[in-house]
Amino acid sequence: MVVKVYGATYAACPLRVMTCLFELGFQFDLIKVDLQSGEQKQPQNLLRQPFGQVPSIEDGDFKLFESRAIIRYYAAKSASQGGTNLLGETLEERALVDQWMEVEVNNYNPLIYTMVLQLVVLPQQGQVGDMELVQDCKGKLEKVLDVYEERLSKSKYLGGERFTIADLTHLPNTRFLVEEGGMEDLIKRRKNLHNWWLDISSRPSWLKVMDLPK
Amino acid sequence: MNHKRRKKKQKGAKMVVKVYGPDYASPKRVILCLIEKEIDYETVDVDLFKGEHMSPQYLKLQPFGVLPVIEDGDYKLYESRAIIRYYAEKYRSQGSELLGKTIEERGLIEQWLDVEAHIFQPPLYDLVVQLLINPKTGVASDPKRIQEDEEKLTKTLDVYEERLSVSKYLASDTFSLADLSHVPFSNYLMTTLKKEYLIRDRKNVSRWWDDISSRPSWKKVLELHPPVL
């Protein structure tokens, strides 16, 4: 069964899902939703995702939205079928994976989302981004990244010694920081964080997703 | 920080999980889950208004300086939604089943847990800051933000109303972690935020709220740990 992924190759949340599906070896078709024209808010997409967002998936009769719920679902499916385990081995390890996934949601994503809005989306719409807000976010992010640096000085990956969805979930937003965000120095200045970024961003699944036509 | 021991069915010298910050809503998410799963616990007070969450002592446990964190013997975990997933899984065989029966059901629970965290919670949390915390700390509230928060919640609850018109609970016809996660902060809407109309104006959301908030577990949480906001 080929999974249908509704989204775009230039948006963070669909990228998260596609990377995970490549990692786990689940075949998928990307069905493009034109975010720039607001297609995600049109009735057809609202039937799939009632909050007017991407991505959503259709796997036969099974439908799901929220990128992190989708990657958890496929990670669980893969692990239960004896495939690649991206969840963690023990319950305690899996809970640490969940902890760092939540850290990304509450401490990492909001800052980067705000910066994406100011640096990319608003200018695209002909508006001026708020650079003071961007600087404020950057300051807060420095403190957050110090915590990550401390964590990664104690373990190779966020959840422990193995690559898991806790690391994967950080790929799209960190890519933004390093590229359009022009803030690679935030990562480079932190030795363990930098090594971790080099490691996870060179995984074949991520390279494959980055190669997808925009 | 005050170590308050709750003596509940002490089983000899068994260590129980410690939950930090019971006065506040995110720790209540954890406590509600522990009670649903019939897990003994004790609490450690952390006074946000005295800045105890920023103390070096607390930051060693939770480096982002937010509540809650749990200590279970040597094992530490933070982020309330990670903690509830852990205990719901670890104690699968006792108390209420909160994680569904199939991987697909679990997927839907994760979906609605994420909706709660990403869409429902942020404007509600901001309302708590604007209307309940700022007055206590002498910070001016922002009427424009309050209005925006309410508009966002209104749109979100319209989607919930539609969902709950075809499903008894958010993920399925069984109460799950996804519903549980909404209870502590939604309680503010019905009490000190004085925005119960957001719930009551919607027939199905109202029905759902009455159901999940009248569970004995939530009544126990309110009895043992009365909200301070």
TrEMBL record, chain A:
Residue ranges of every copy of the GST N-terminal domain listed in the record: 1-82
Keyword field: Transferase
Listed GO CC annotations: cytoplasm
Catalysed conversion reaction: RX + glutathione = an S-substituted glutathione + a halide anion + H(+)
E.C. numbers: 2.5.1.18
A Pfam match: GST_N
Keyword Repeat included in the entry's annotation: no
Residue stretches making up the GST C-terminal domain: 90-214
Gene3D superfamilies recorded: 1.20.1050.10, Glutaredoxin
GO molecular function terms listed in the Swiss-Prot or TrEMBL record: glutathione binding; glutathione transferase activity
InterPro entries referenced in this protein's UniProt entry, alphabetically: Glutathione-S-Trfase_C-like (IPR010987), Glutathione-S-Trfase_C_sf (IPR036282), Glutathione_S-Trfase (IPR040079), Glutathione_S-Trfase_N (IPR004045), GST_C (IPR004046), GST_Phi_C (IPR034347), Thioredoxin-like_sf (IPR036249)
GO biological process: glutathione metabolic process; toxin catabolic process
Top-level taxonomic group: Eukaryota
Ribosomal protein in keyword set: no
The family this protein is said to belong to: Belongs to the GST superfamily. Phi family.
PANTHER family: GLUTATHIONE S-TRANSFERASE F12, GLUTATHIONE S-TRANSFERASE RHO
Name of the protein in question: glutathione transferase
Organism per entry: Salvia splendens
TrEMBL record, chain B:
Reactions performed catalytically: RX + glutathione = an S-substituted glutathione + a halide anion + H(+)
Similarity comment text for this entry: Belongs to the GST superfamily. Phi family.
Pfam families: GST_C, GST_N
Lineage: Eukaryota, Viridiplantae, Streptophyta, Embryophyta, Tracheophyta
InterPro entries: Glutathione-S-Trfase_C-like, Glutathione-S-Trfase_C_sf, Glutathione_S-Trfase, Glutathione_S-Trfase_N, GST_C, GST_Phi_C, Thioredoxin-like_sf
Keywords carried by this UniProt record: Transferase
Protein name per the record: glutathione transferase
CC terms in the record's Gene Ontology section: cytoplasm
CDD domains tied to this protein: GST_C_Phi (cd03187), GST_N_Phi (cd03053)
E.C. numbers: 2.5.1.18
UniProt cross-references to Gene3D superfamilies, sorted A to Z: 1.20.1050.10, Glutaredoxin (3.40.30.10)
Molecular function (Gene Ontology), one example: glutathione binding
Biological processes annotated in GO: glutathione metabolic process; toxin catabolic process
Domain of life from the UniProt record: Eukaryota
Domain GST C-terminal: 102-229
